[in-house]
Design brief:
With about 250 residues, the protein is α+β, with helices and mostly antiparallel strands. It has 3 helices and 14 strands. The longest helix is centred in the first third of the chain and has 37 residues.
Length: about 250
């Protein structure tokens, strides 16, 4: 809205102002709707992705899948999925939802399986003068990743077993398109250092940044075309940014 000093407000000015504000509101609603639909489409596309598994040169188990992203956690929580990993991810997200309300926050669930086979030397403890039955002891250690011991008596056997693992979770963007000039694709990757463990399944979700439509309302002073006259003006301007250049 532009108000010239000592000028009269005409009906045409009010009509044009109302039309201008209406156009801005319509553009804002349309832009927000389009962004919501794009986000929904990308979320569903990532949801259909399957996990990629491989062993690296060091024999470590790796898995990678598209990252689930949305600007609102409700898109994940309201999802009706029969996938057990997605369901568990939803449960964890529901438990910590009060901590997942900021862009960049997220949740990851990893399902691993560890198998190992070891041969242990059995030591027999038996003193005929004291013990009625012998006691059998054994222990094993698979490179510090799986280790334990056992004690067997006449009536029972007790096992003490420990499994060690170390996991890396990487969340980033993969280059897409010709020469990597396409829009980057968000992904999540997990790596297990235990050579006896494999990643069976996993999923990762992150709250993305909401990019609102910006409408700027503020005082303005300048020189330009006002109505059918050219001259200085003082007033209030309303603008909707159509093109942004980020340096």
């Amino acid at each position: 809205m532009i108000i010239q000093p000592n000028s009269k407000k005409s009906k045409i000015t009010y009509i044009l102002l109302i039309i201008g504000i209406g156009i801005l509101i319509f553009m804002s609603i349309k832009s927000t709707f389009n962004k919501t639909e794009i986000e929904k489409e990308k979320f569903n596309e990532s949801l259909q992705d399957s996990v990629e598994y491989w062993k690296d040169k060091s024999g470590r188990s790796n898995a990678k899948i598209s990252l689930l992203e949305s600007s609102n956690l409700s898109r994940l929580l309201e999802l009706n999925s029969k996938d057990s990993t997605i369901y568990h991810l939803q449960q964890v997200a529901e438990e910590y939802k009060n901590k997942l309300d900021k862009p960049g926050s997220g949740v990851t669930t990893v399902d691993t399986e560890t198998k190992g086979e070891a041969t242990a030397v059995t030591e027999i403890e038996y003193n005929p003068q004291i013990d009625k039955y012998p006691i059998y002891r054994s222990s094993f250690n698979l490179g510090g990743w799986i280790f334990g011991s056992s004690v067997a008596t006449k009536d029972s056997t007790t096992y003490d077993i420990a499994v060690k693992d170390k996991l890396d979770v990487i969340i980033g963007y993969e280059k897409q398109g010709f020469l990597g000039l396409g829009k980057p694709k968000p992904f999540a990757q997990v790596r297990s250092y235990n050579p006896y463990s494999i990643v069976k399944d996993f999923r990762s979700y992150r709250v993305s940044e909401r990019k609102p439509v910006t409408i700027v309302i503020g005082p303005s002073i300048g020189y330009g075309l006002t109505g059918l006259q050219i001259g200085p003006f003082i007033g209030i301007t309303i603008t909707h940014p159509l093109i942004k250049i980020r340096l």
